């Protein structure tokens, strides 16, 4: 029987919906999140967007077997509440319950952290397939870590095909381990969190404070002036330290990098060699891959919350 699953990727700036039939994407569209308009407005616009995207495939809510949602924060698996994250409007909200009530349909809705879903999608349909071809180890037996380097810095640790989420859903909040004690303040309350050095806005802020000029993070990496070079070198060192710490904790097969910064080729220069030279488990050679699926990993991972209908 045909199974229709909706995958939703709810970010700080855009909301994407995709329709999957028997595991294959048949339609995908995005709208702005416009967080400033408030939580209720987000829900109302999203529910309309879901219906429009469904209509484009000649389906209705009655045909849908499940809705998977990626949210930009830690989701407690017991209560479904979003506990923390950098998009405040979702904090302490039960998104699955609220979406269900506004859709007014009896469809099961599952939510999870967006970085975990990026990692899940990459392990099963992207980087994991590449690693399997190289190593002979199938995705269900791999240890893969997905890292988002974007507006924020998140992560997902996939062990034997499943995301490790910890007791309260915060098991892979890798962006909030400290790289510099007494470093830059983070919204989470600590000083020196990795996110404050690895996200796009931190690169832009560093360039502005050195030169007084405003550039996008990708543009800073194209510049050849001394200030830009210093920032580029520092970024590479910080990223290496970050991955090294994760190697010590998880001894993974590979990392897969996603988010806007992950498309900058320069961040990958010599990174594997340096990583392999420094890892605690001598002789281990974790790969560092650029994302393989691209833009659609978020909605695909969200739909994979209904793995029974997707794999
Ligand atoms: Zn933090």
Q: What keywords describe this structure?
A:
12 strands; binds zinc ion; 311 residues; 5-stranded mixed beta sheet; alpha/beta; Nucleotidyltransferase, domain 5
Q: Could you give a quick summary of the protein structure above?
A:
The protein is of the alpha/beta class and 311 residues long. It has 11 helices and 12 strands. Helix content is 36%, strand content 22%.
Bound chemical compounds = zinc ion
How would you describe the shape? globular
Number of strands: 12
Task: Label the structural class.
Answer: alpha/beta
- Name the poorly predicted regions: none
Number of helices: 11
Number of domains: 2
Helix content: 25-40%
Overall CATH architecture of the largest domain: 2-Layer Sandwich
| H/E topology pattern | EEEHEEEHEHHEEEHHHHEHEHH
Mean pLDDT: 96
Calculate Rg over CA atoms: 19 Å
How large is the share of residues in beta strands? 15-25%
* CATH homologous superfamily grouping of the largest domain: ATPase, nucleotide binding domain
| Largest sheet, strands/sense/barrel | 5 strands, mixed
- Subunit arrangement of the protein: single chain
In CATH, the topology of the largest domain is named Nucleotidyltransferase, domain 5
């Amino acid at each position: 029987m045909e199974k229709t699953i909706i995958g939703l990727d709810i970010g700080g700036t855009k909301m994407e919906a995709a329709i999957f039939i028997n595991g294959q994407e048949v339609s995908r569209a995005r709208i702005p999140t416009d967080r400033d308009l408030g939580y209720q407005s987000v829900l109302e616009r999203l529910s309309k967007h879901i219906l429009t995207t469904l209509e484009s495939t000649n389906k209705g809510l009655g045909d849908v077997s499940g809705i998977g949602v990626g949210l930009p924060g830690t989701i407690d698996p017991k209560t479904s509440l979003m506990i923390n994250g950098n998009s405040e409007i979702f904090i302490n909200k039960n998104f699955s319950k609220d979406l269900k009530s506004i859709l007014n349909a009896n469809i099961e809705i599952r939510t999870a952290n967006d970085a975990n879903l990026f990692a899940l999608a990459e392990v099963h349909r992207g980087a994991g397939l590449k690693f399997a071809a190289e190593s002979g180890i199938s995705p269900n037996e791999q240890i893969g870590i997905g890292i988002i380097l974007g507006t924020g810095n998140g992560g997902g640790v996939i062990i034997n095909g499943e995301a490790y989420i910890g007791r309260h859903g915060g098991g892979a909040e890798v962006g909030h381990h400290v790289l510099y004690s007494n470093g830059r303040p983070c919204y989470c309350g600590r000083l020196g969190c990795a996110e404050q050095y690895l996200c796009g806005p931190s690169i832009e802020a560093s360039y502005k404070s050195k030169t007084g000029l405003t550039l996008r993070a990708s543009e800073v990496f194209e510049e050849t002036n001394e200030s830009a070079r210093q920032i580029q070198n520092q970024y590479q060192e910080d990223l290496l330290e970050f991955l090294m710490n994760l190697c010590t904790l998880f001894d993974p097969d590979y990392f897969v990098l996603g988010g806007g910064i992950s498309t900058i080729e320069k961040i990958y220069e010599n990174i594997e060699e340096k990583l392999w030279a420094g890892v605690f488990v001598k002789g281990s050679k974790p790969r560092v891959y650029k994302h393989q699926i691209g833009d659609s990993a978020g909605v695909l991972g969200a739909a994979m919350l209904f793995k029974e209908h997707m794999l």
